[in-house]
Amino acid sequence: MKKILIGVTGGIAAYKAASVVSALRQAGHDVQVAMTPAACQFVTPLTFAALSQKEVRTELFPAHPTSDKGQLYPHLYPATEADLFVVLPATADIIGKFACGFSDDIVSASALSLPAGCKKIFCPAMNTQMWDNPVVQENVQTLEKRGWQRIGPESGLMACGTTGAGRMSDPSAILDAIHKALA
Fold first, then answer.
1. How far apart are CA 67 and CA 71, in angstroms?
2. Rounded to the nearest 10 degrees, what angle do helices 134-145 and 92-100 cross at?
3. Closest C-alpha to 135, from 99, 103, 175
4. At CA 169, angle to CA 181 and CA 88, rounded to 5?
5. Residue 153 in 3-state DSSP?
6. Active-site residue 160, yes or no?
7. Which of the residues 100, 118, 123, 160 is marked catalytic?
8. Tens-digit pLDDT profile for residues 115-160
9. What pLDDT is attached to residue 66?
10. Integer angstrom CA distances of residue 133 from 117, 137, 139, 161
11. Which of 70, 96, 98, 115 has the most Cβ atoms closer than 10 angstroms to its Cβ?
12. Is the pLDDT of residue 67 over 80?
């Protein structure tokens, strides 16, 4: 059983993360979800708690921490114990934070706490103009140079009504990449 940390960020494609979490849990993996505040505007933490059978990490500083190390140090646990970290959707914002080492939310702070051997996957999803922006492309290249595996994006019609590159890959393609990374 592998320990997988899923980072969900604030894009409309966040709903696709639910099927990935469900499939990984059904495959017997230990799945923990961390969500940015923006992600919580698209899908509720309750959805991921039900699918993962675990409390979802949403804050760097929980309002009522217990003596549980995950409550006291949510940016460290479960990140420091993860075999795989998957971020979906990976917005332009989170890609930029990862590339620059910023950590002002639970997902970006968790990324800085991963062990050296942890495999990292990001699944970009954003408007075509954002995806094509040179700074976003530079940040993507930075992550790839640092060993992050990128899945997507695909081209097609997006929620904003435009067509082009920027759609998050299908959950089945993401799951295939995850299974290969864990093999």
1. 7
2. 50
3. 99
4. 70
5. coil
6. yes
7. 160
8. 999 999 999 999 999 999 999 999 999 999 999 999 999 999 888 8
9. 72
10. 31, 6, 10, 18
11. 98
12. no
